Amino acid sequence: MSKDRPTIGTDGLALPILPPERDPRVWARLCRIMFYTPGFLALLLLKVGEPTGFGISVELLMLGSMSAIVGGLYIGTQSESAGADHSSRIGTWCGSLVLELLAVVPILCAVPSLFHELANSKLLHALTPGAVDISLGASELLPAVAILPFMLYQLAGFGTLHYIVSRPMNWAINIGILGLIIASTVANRQGAFGVEKALVGVLVIAMVITLFYGVLKLRQMQTLYDANSPPKAAK
Questions:
Q1: Full-model pTM
Q2: Sorting pLDDT into bands at 50, 70 and 90, what band is 131?
């Protein structure tokens, strides 16, 4: 049975509320999935060599794939054994933050435009004589529904960001993510690819800034916790 962490430090002040301990093996497996799936999909799209609308989707998929490697580097540093320091104790949390912000968010942003292009590609779907071209209509948006459980993951306290920023800021960040994804998808459907790239650029830059703040904040919290946590009872 797990034990609760101390809440009051040796200085009499409240200790930082850190994320719960997580199994790094689970996150390491997720890194492999996050690397191979979007990476291979992006390479297949490049081989197809078709539409303009694939451009930003391929870039986002490659960003998600490469970010999984970086996330794995953080997770690989996790240690509580001899020689562990402040940074090693937050390896898994930092890795999860990389995956959440720079792997999952770009993939969620790429999926709606990507599916639209795949469904309407003239190279991938050569029409036979007399065939009727049926539009998928609103059903094209079904893959984009995946963003809703991601929002629930973030706002219901499952995400790492929940422990780093205040609740109003967490809501603001995630509503901003949702708004930018919707706006970039609309721009893609309207053929405003320049606007789409600008919106995606804002989204990625915002995620990078949030990630930098989050990693440094986690290390600061862990340093403060280690400096003021009560000593463990002798066995």
A1: 0.83
A2: very low
- Number of helices (H), then strands (E), belonging to the chain: the values are 7, 0
Closest to 173 in 3D by CA, of 221, 88, 101, 89:
101
Q: How confident is the model at residue 202 (pLDDT cuts 50, 70, 90)?
A: very high
Buried b (16+ CB within 10 A) or exposed e, 121-159: beeeeeeeeeeeeeeeeeebeeebeebeebbeebbeeeb
Tens digits of per-residue pLDDT, 81-103?
A: 777 788 888 899 999 999 999 99
Closest CA to 188 of 107, 136, 104, 111: 111
Question: Cα separation of 112 and 57, whole Å?
Answer: 9
Long-range contacts from 161-167, C-beta under 8 angstroms, 24+ separation:
161/97, 161/100, 161/101, 161/210, 161/214, 163/17, 163/18, 163/19, 163/93, 164/97, 164/213, 164/214, 164/217, 164/218, 165/214
Closest-CA residue to 97 (of 122, 120, 70, 130):
70
pLDDT digits (tens, 9 = 90+) for 210-222: 999 999 999 999 9
